[in-house]
């Protein structure tokens, strides 16, 4: 009698899951040549959705239950939490408020137009949708959900913006530097609004303690960093990140808010540009795909697939219309050249990553449901995929007069 094959252990199944997470999106990106309309990061996010319970889980429930069992998901979540904390930390670290301040009038007008108008149109869309059941989370109120969805429609993903600007060849150009200023200012606003949404009046004392302690600790850490070598700064910065993330979560905010603050109070010039860029690329290559998969595992279609897709389309229209109108108004006020407002509006429409991180926090805190999260995730993917195809011909048209 042939002995039964031993059951696979958690480690083996985890490595199978990791192989799928890394291989499937890469092969789709490379073989289908999607780079023009969907860079690898976007394909990885789509891959996370397809590998989630709504698609793979529905088609092959036994296979899905075997590979993505609770032990494997727990291990993947641990990697995802730390990966996204480091990524948000770098985003905070790379904020350059000095340049924005030097061009404060133009930056403030444009950043306000790019943020407030889509925030308003997104909030109006949310106010309409949330009158039907199934979209507000168990711990969320109507105003919290409306503001959260409105902000999700207004978000610009600074790291993906940089990636797309490099692809389009405008990152080091004056237009690229302007886009960085606008997106940087909006990045600060995003995390400020998130902190406002997450204010817990039952924990307001803890949040007050956190803010005071963070201010004092930031002063001490900055003084320490001035005395350290760069190698030591990298190591200490990770300790600082873990401590602030814990403290923010303990106070009732979220470890992601803490991660952004931990980076924002440090100076990017304390780290060489090459190592900082290399660290960000390492995160995108090695560990952020796990976050995208863990995000996809949270997508659900319980209110009906058509309803979720309808909500995603509603948010997409609100986001695009609001962003383009707001930036066009700014362009009129500032006297921009013809065509610039459209290019800037579409570039700032890039949402993947930061918006996904933002709505992950809303889902974690029970402010929105999995269905709202799924609709916003689909909106983020679609808006990011539209950026390069929409901007490329506009850049060529803008460059034509300079060729004569």
Walkthrough of the structure:
This protein is mostly helical and 404 residues long. It is 75% helix and 0% strand. The protein is built from 18 helices and no strands. The protein has helices at residues 10-31, 40-50, 56-59, 61-67, 70-93, 97-102, 104-129, 142-154, 158-168, 174-197, 204-225, 230-250, 255-264, 273-296, 305-334, 340-347, 354-364, 370-399.
Q: What oligomeric state best describes the polypeptide chains here? A: single chain
Mean pLDDT metric = 88
Q: How far apart, in Å, are the first and last alpha carbons?
A: 85 Å
- How many helical elements? 18
- State the secondary-structure class: mainly alpha
Largest sheet: none
Q: What is the percent of helical residues?
A: over 70%
Quote the beta fraction: under 5%
Radius of gyration (CA) equals 21 Å
H/E series, N to C? Answer: HHHHHHHHHHHHHHHHHH
Number of E-state strands: 0
Q: What ranges have pLDDT less than 50 throughout 5 or more consecutive residues?
A: none
Shape label: globular
């Amino acid at each position: 009698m042939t002995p039964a094959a031993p059951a696979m252990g958690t480690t083996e199944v985890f490595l199978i899951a990791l192989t799928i997470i890394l291989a499937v999106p890469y092969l789709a990106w490379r073989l289908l040549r999607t780079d023009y309309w969907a860079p690898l990061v976007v394909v990885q996010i789509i891959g996370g959705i397809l590998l989630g319970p709504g698609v793979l889980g529905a088609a092959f429930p036994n296979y899905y239950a075997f590979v993505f069992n609770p032990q494997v998901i727990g291990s993947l979540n641990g990697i995802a939490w730390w990966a996204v904390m480091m990524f948000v930390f770098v985003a905070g670290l790379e904020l350059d408020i000095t340049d924005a301040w030097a061009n404060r009038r133009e930056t403030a007008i444009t950043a306000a137009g790019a943020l407030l108008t889509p925030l308003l149109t997104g909030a109006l869309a949310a106010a309409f949708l949330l009158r039907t059941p199934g979209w507000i989370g168990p711990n969320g109120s109507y105003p919290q959900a409306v503001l959260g969805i409105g902000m999700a429609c207004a978000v610009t993903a600074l790291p993906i913006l940089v990636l797309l600007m490099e692809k389009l060849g405008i990152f080091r150009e004056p237009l690229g530097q302007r886009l960085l200023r606008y997106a940087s200012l909006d990045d600060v606003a995003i995390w400020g609004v998130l902190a406002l949404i997450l204010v817990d009046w039952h924990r307001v004392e803890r949040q007050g303690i956190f803010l005071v302690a963070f201010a004092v600790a930031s002063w001490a850490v900055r003084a320490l960093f001035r005395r350290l070598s760069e190698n030591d700064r990298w190591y200490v910065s990770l300790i600082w990140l873990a401590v602030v993330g814990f403290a923010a979560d303990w106070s009732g905010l979220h470890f992601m808010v803490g991660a952004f603050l931990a980076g924002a109070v440090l100076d990017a010039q304390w780290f060489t540009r090459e190592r900082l860029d290399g660290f960000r690329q390492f995160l995108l290559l090695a560990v952020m795909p796990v976050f995208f998969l863990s995000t996809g595992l949270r997508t659900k279609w319980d209110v009906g697939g058509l309803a979720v897709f309808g909500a995603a389309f509603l948010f997409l229209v609100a986001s695009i219309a609001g962003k383009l109108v707001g930036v066009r108004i700014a362009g009129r006020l500032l006297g921009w050249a013809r065509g610039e407002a459209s290019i800037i509006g579409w570039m700032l429409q890039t949402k993947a990553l930061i918006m996904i991180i933002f709505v992950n926090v809303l889902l974690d805190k029970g402010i929105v449901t999995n269905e709202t999260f799924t609709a916003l995730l689909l909106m983020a993917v679609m808006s990011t995929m539209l950026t390069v195809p929409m901007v490329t011909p506009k850049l060529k048209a803008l460059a034509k007069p300079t060729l004569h």
